[in-house]
Amino acid sequence: ADAAGSGDDDSGSGDAGEEFAEGAEEAIPKGTDPAFYLAFGFIAMVAIYIFMYRRNKKKRLMREAFFIDMDGDKFNIKLPGAVDEYYDVKDKCLAAGWEPGQTIDPAQAAANGPHRVLAQALMKRCIADIPLVTHIQKESAGMNKLYSQSMCSVKQWKTYQAAEQLVSSEVEEVRAEADEIEPGWSQAIWRQAMQYHNMLKNRHEMEAKAREQAAMQKLQMEEEAKKPKLTPEQQADKMAEELIKAEEREKASKGSFKGAGMKKGFLDGKKEAKK
């Protein structure tokens, strides 16, 4: 009987243990599978990569389109017509007996002589070259930086190099011509040309401003002319009306000043209150 009772007790305890284990499993929440985190992280990385790729591609296409539009335009320059005019004048001066490199006293040189005429033609050529020289000098640093960072097209870089070479050759050629006209003039001709260019630029700006002011004055005069002219009687009536209005404004201002004064008995009321 004791053995049977102990067997029943063991079977009961076994059933209770199984029920406890099942209850514990139900009580403890199951964790998220790590594969879910891996899949989510992979998808997020792919999305970020696609976003960055599309953004960089868009920027690259915009940059390439910018340089394609600018190719051949910004540095497609030509020398001014004053260059050919100078050589025409030089041919005439050579035909008139002028010789390169000869020293002539400027005070003794005739105003219409070959030496003076050729010097003026070269200065005119040099002044006309100033915008090209300043343009290349301004763009030089930027173009070299873009080329070093592979941010400009090959076509644009070659166009810039050709323009730079053209301007550099022109600068040296002007200096050589200057020494033929007056030995040593090559050291000062470009500085003088820059000064003359700035003077002419300021003069043109002043003339344009004066023309604009003259046009405005002319327009005002035309507007005044369109207005109906008053007879002497109408002018007298208008002046009398303006005088009456001025007197009324003066009276109104005096009345408002008096009304804004301190009321009578204001201080007396304070004194009585203190008492």
Which tags fit this structure?
275 residues, 8 helices, flat, single chain, disordered N terminus, mainly alpha
Description of the structure:
- With 275 residues, the chain is an all-alpha fold.
- The chain contains eight helices and no strands.
- It has helices at residues 2-27, 34-70, 82-95, 114-148, 154-181, 189-226, 232-259, 266-274.
Short description:
Helices cover 78% and strands 0% of the residues. It has helices at 2-27, 34-70, 82-95, 114-148, 154-181, 189-226, 232-259, 266-274.
Q: What number is the mean pLDDT? A: 78
Largest sheet features: none
Task: State which percent range the strand residues make up.
Answer: under 5%
What's the helix count? 8
The number of E-state strands comes to 0
Low-pLDDT stretches are 1-14, 23-29
Cα-based radius of gyration, to the nearest Å = 48 Å
General shape: flat
Structural class: mainly alpha
Oligomer: single chain
The secondary-structure element order is: HHHHHHHH
Helix percentage: over 70%
End-to-end Cα distance, whole Å, is 119 Å
Topology summary:
Layout: H1 2-27, H2 34-70, H3 82-95, H4 114-148, H5 154-181, H6 189-226, H7 232-259, H8 266-274
